[in-house]
UniProtKB/TrEMBL annotation:
Species assigned in the record: Halorussus aquaticus
Residues passing through the membrane, by range: 6-26, 38-57, 63-87
PANTHER family in UniProt: NA(+)/H(+) ANTIPORTER SUBUNIT F1, NA(+)_H(+) ANTIPORTER SUBUNIT F
Main location: membrane
Places the protein is found: Cell membrane
Listed GO CC annotations: plasma membrane
Alphabetized Pfam families for the sequence: MrpF_PhaF (PF04066)
Membrane topology (UniProt): Multi-pass membrane protein
Keyword terms, alphabetized: Cell membrane, Membrane, Transmembrane, Transmembrane helix, Transport
Cleaved signal peptide residues: none
Protein name: Monovalent cation/H+ antiporter complex subunit F
Amino acid sequence: MASELLGTVVYGALVLTAALTLLAGYRVIRGPTVPDRVVALDTIATNVVAIAALFAVSTGEGLFVTVGLVLAIIGFISTIAVSQYVIEGDIIE
């Protein structure tokens, strides 16, 4: 009973997170300003980390947690790089 409920909740969370990622993708394409697009890209990175963690819970594989951590680091670095570019027009001084 409890494992069925957990599986249903995890599956629902995966579907919801994937739908929100698609909506953020729309904001990346149609965003009126560059900062809106940067925030949407950061949201996509966060959602992909959440999808990796939820998939790790549903499959029981610990490797997906490591993948999620690596994606979080890459997402953080890319957000910093893009914000540097938006603010100063150059990434490396």
